[in-house]
Design brief:
alpha+beta; globular
Length: 236
């Protein structure tokens, strides 16, 4: 009788161990818990010159709080994070949720997907590289690539132009923080007319500071200096 009781207890303990062994520990999310899609290839891009990716080769990276690292690359044209799930399968992370990607190739670069508004007022989800982070503001860079359709030869005097991907100038976005909360992404203007509106009453001092320090608005290091100076002026 005692032998059967012990055996039953051991069996129950073994089964409970199997169940608990399958439970994911807190903070250890798995890749299959994320939303993704598989249809990444678009036939219209076959044979196009150049690349629509920030870098062509997949590099190791951490995705959110997932412990295991994965190989990733960024489709800048489609604003898609591609993940090499295995040798033959590439998935795209869903744009319904935001993700944080930290590259493990030695660069320690951090990328985030965030919602932003384009010039038409449309809300889109894009890939941003984090350039600076402190208690006052976050600075991001958004790389851009344009797809140019092929142009057929119209006459013997004109050559046909193949379809190609054309890199465009980067754009920069700042997010000012108040009590640790972000006010959303704001594009940092590159043109003087827009800068006047962006900096408001502080623009004369900003302009003087930029000239004195020989800074430019299309440099991430210079932008950090400009925004720090602006933050000090406004006591953000």
């Amino acid at each position: 009788m005692i032998g059967k009781t012990v055996l039953s207890a051991l069996t129950m303990f073994f089964l409970m161990g199997m169940v608990y062994g399958q439970v994911t520990q807190p903070g250890t999310a798995q890749l299959n818990e994320l939303e993704f899609f598989v249809q990444l290839n678009n036939p219209k891009y076959d044979g196009v010159e150049g690349s629509k990716h920030l870098f062509e080769e997949f590099v190791p990276a951490k995705i959110n709080n997932i412990q295991k690292s994965y190989l990733v690359r960024f489709d800048i044209l489609e604003n898609t994070i591609e993940v090499k799930k295995d040798k033959d399968e590439i998935i795209g992370l869903s744009k319904k949720a935001n993700h944080t990607i930290k590259l493990l190739d030695g660069s320690e670069r951090i990328f985030e997907t965030k919602n932003f508004s384009n010039k038409n007022g449309d809300t889109l989800n894009g890939i941003f590289e984090q350039l600076h982070s402190d208690k006052v503001f976050l600075l991001f860079r958004k790389s851009r690539i344009k797809y140019q359709k092929a142009k057929p030869m119209k006459s013997s005097y004109e050559q046909a132009v193949p379809a190609k991907f054309i890199p465009l100038d980067d754009t920069f976005y700042v997010s000012f923080l108040k009590e640790g909360k972000s006010n959303g992404l704001i594009e940092v203007p590159q043109k003087k007319k827009s800068q006047k509106s962006f900096f408001g009453e502080y623009f004369p001092k900003i302009e003087k500071f930029v000239k004195h320090e020989k800074l430019v608005f299309n440099s991430d290091e210079d932008l950090v200096k400009i925004l720090k100076y602006y933050s000090n002026l406004t006591k953000l």
